[in-house]
Amino acid sequence: MRRITLLSAAVVFALASVCASAQESRLPDIGSSAGELLTPRKQQEYGSMMLAQLRHYDYTLDDPLIASWLDTLGTRLAANSDKPQQAFTFFMLRERQINAFATLGGYVGVNSGLVLAAEREDEVAAVLSHEIAHVTQQHVLRSVERAQRDSIPILLAMLGAVVAAGAAGGNSSDDAIQAAVIGAQGLMYQRQIDYTRSNESEADRIGIQTLSRTHYDTGAMAGFFGTLNSRSRANRAGYYGETPSYLMTHPVTTTRISEAKDLAEKMARAPARFTSADLASDNPLLPGGLKIGPATASGGTGQFDFARERLRVLSANSPSDAIREYERMAKGKPLNDAQRYGTAVAKLRANQGPAAAPMFAELLDKHPGDLWLTLALGEAEARAGKPEAADARFEAILKSMPKNRPAALTYARVLAERNTPAAGKRAQAILRPLLGQSSEDPEFQQVFARASEIAGDPVRAGEAYAEAAFLNGRAEQALVQLNTLKRRSDLDYYARSRIDARIAAITPTVLELKRQGIRDEDLRRN
Q1: Which of 56, 138, 163, 405 is deepest in the core (most CB within 10 A)?
Q2: Where in the chain is the domain with CATH 1.25.40?
Q3: Predicted TM-score of the model (pTM)
């Protein structure tokens, strides 16, 4: 666990260097060579590679409902940013430290701890809009330009050094890992010392504009920063916990809080500047003439409370720890509906389906039609020995939402647990309509692989398992799996063509990782 923690810190600190926390202050947009240094495609490749490495070391928190909530929130904000054509990928990290960061290619990571520390969705939106601004204002790209082409090699080499140190074993391996982390941090932080304040101020200003356009509370940014600043002062006095990581990479001063508050107040006094008509006319992603009414223009997803409690459970060390956490909370005051949902999720994950099912049913009576509760109840019924009731519930959802990712994945997992060919084929049928949009989704690929395996479709299973390995940072393993699969005598022309295409696409990534000294530790041991 210590090695994973150190590696996690290394990745986050390194990302912070080439990303939003290492910014250059006064470079003009016109004439910058940043676009020549790293093309948009190359930026996306590096961002994707870093996300794969985070997944590989189990730093990400992959859950279809959480991912759907975060993507909905982030996409709304991005669409209302000053560069709505910029592509973004939002992902959650299981670490409970308060932190968030943006990296190359529009990849934005959010720690579970940041969501748990927020009181409202507006506060999470404020942080996301700030990180989005770091990307749209090219702070990320300019930091790489200043590093004169060596930030990314340093980052990858550091990952390689950490992996090598961990694989070496022995009493000195932890010290070697620590040395790799410290060395990388020293190089990265040196580049950001003089470039933080103005870029942070600009990201605040642009981010608050994005909040306003998306109809979130523009005062949420100053409010959340003030909360973090107060916590930091309390920490220095030794009252509780560590200083939030977000304050290390995004220094918050009273001046910055005051400026954010002042800007929010100015926008509140001039609401006409950001009407739904403005959103329709200024957003190139919307068809011409489309008018967004107040209901659809509202920023809130309506899922924050359940999302926060689900994250509380999924980021806990174990379901039992989560249950005890809710028991401690209940001693202070009665749990609200979202916290009761979290308690039931914890019980479900602790294999207490019969105990969780009535809790979900009672909540669903109070919140009829809620997708999160309906899926949870179906899952609980399946694990409480009521497969017919569970199937009927899932089939009803998919009839109305056949391409809903959380619904399809949850039902497919329930079916796969039955381990029968009929269940596998039904799971395949449920997931197949989502195949085209799930090429970058390792969780989907893993579930589809298992469904194909028990359905008696080894070729599709092998392809999906290899794809999941690649997306989870195991590019070399994926290449080995595909080459093994290619030797099967029962491949048809189309399957062989698909496999050949993926081998050709994955090989450059494997070669780049090898060039940086990063090898798959499991394959090396074999």
Answers
A1: 163
A2: 401-526
A3: 0.82
